Amino acid sequence: MQEVIFVRIFTSMNFSKLLIDWYQLNKRALPWRKTTNPYAVWLSEIILQQTRIDQGLSYYEKFIETFPTVFDLAKADEETVLKLWQGLGYYSRARNLHHTAKFVVEHFNGTFPDNYKELKKLKGIGDYTASAIASICYDEPQAVVDGNVFRVLSRVFGIETPINTTQAAKEFKTLAQSLLDQTNPGEFNQALMEFGATQCKPQKPLCSGCIFKDHCIAFNTGKVTLLPIKTSKLKVRNRYFNYLVVVSANEKTLLEKRTQNGIWKNLYQFPLIEKENNSILNTAEIEDVFDITKIESVTLFNEKPIQHKLSHQHLHIRFWIVNTDMIPKDGYAISEINKYPVPVVIQNFIERFSF
C-alpha cells in the first residue's frame, strides 16, 4: 500500500518534470546524447551493457571512427570486430553486435526497425536496449529498466523485491512505465539512468542533495544501503589455466582459436592445459601437447597464478615459456600476434613478456 501511495504522490508532483529538470542541469556531455541516429544509440547501448561509461567511452569512439555506419560494421570480418572489442569482456556482445549489423543491412537495407516490438527481435537486443532505442530515436513511450533504474526506484519507492528475479523485472517495468513522461520518453529514460549513475550511486549516494529525498522511502527509513536487494549469487567456479607460450628459433609461436561455446569464444590463445587444481605442471604434461621437433627448455613465467575474475568464474592462470628449435608451418610469426583478438589477460602478458 505504501508503494501505491508514493506513486500517487510522485504523479501529482510530476516526477518526470523534477527528474528532467535535474537532468538538464546535471547531465554529462556524452557523444551518443548528441544524436538520435539509431545506429549510434544502439552501438552505445551494447557497449555500455555491464561496462562503466569511463571505460566504454573510448571503445564507443573507436567503433564509431572505424565503423561510421552499420554498413561499415556489417562489412567487417569478425576478428576485426573482436580485436576492437578486446578488453571489454562479455565477448558474446561483440559477436551479437556484428551479427545484428549484417542482419540489418541484409534484411532492412541498413535501416533499424522504428519500434520496440521489431527491435526486440534482433539478436542481442532485449527489453532494455529495445526500449532505449525506441524511446530515444523514435519517441515511443517505452520505459527502460537497467541497474541504475532498479536502484533508483527500489530506494525511492522502498521496493524489496530482489532485482535479479523475474517478478522484479515485471514489477519495475510497470512502475517505470507509470512514471514515464509520455511526451518526452527518451529524455526521461536518459535522465533516470543518469540520476542512478551519478546521484543515486551504489556506494555513497548523494542523498543530501537529492531531489527526491523528502519522499524517498529508503532515505527516510534508513534503508539506503540495504536497497536494492539481490538474491544470493550462484557459486563461483574456480578454473586453473596453464598457457604454453612457445618461442622458437625461427621467431614463431603457436596460437589456437577457442571455437567451443563458453568464455572467449572465437578469441585466440596460446595452447592451454586446464587442470582440476592449482598444482604445477610436469614436463611430461607439456611435452604431450606438442608435435614439435625438440623442446629445449621450459620455464614457469609466473609462479604465483594470476587471478582473473569473471562474473561466474575465477581463473587462476600461469604462463609457461617453452623454447624450441623450430615450429612447423602452422606457427604464427611473433611479430604478427598483436593482430589477433585475444583475452585481455593474454594481451597483458604479451605486453609484459619480451619475445
From TrEMBL:
Adenine glycosylase active on G-A mispairs. MutY also corrects error-prone DNA synthesis past GO lesions which are due to the oxidatively damaged form of guanine: 7,8-dihydro-8-oxoguanine (8-oxo-dGTP). It comes from Planktosalinus lacus. Pfam families: HHH, HhH-GPD, NUDIX_4. Signal peptide: none annotated. Coiled coil: none annotated. Binds 1 [4Fe-4S] cluster. One of its GO terms (molecular function) is oxidized purine DNA binding. This is Adenine DNA glycosylase.
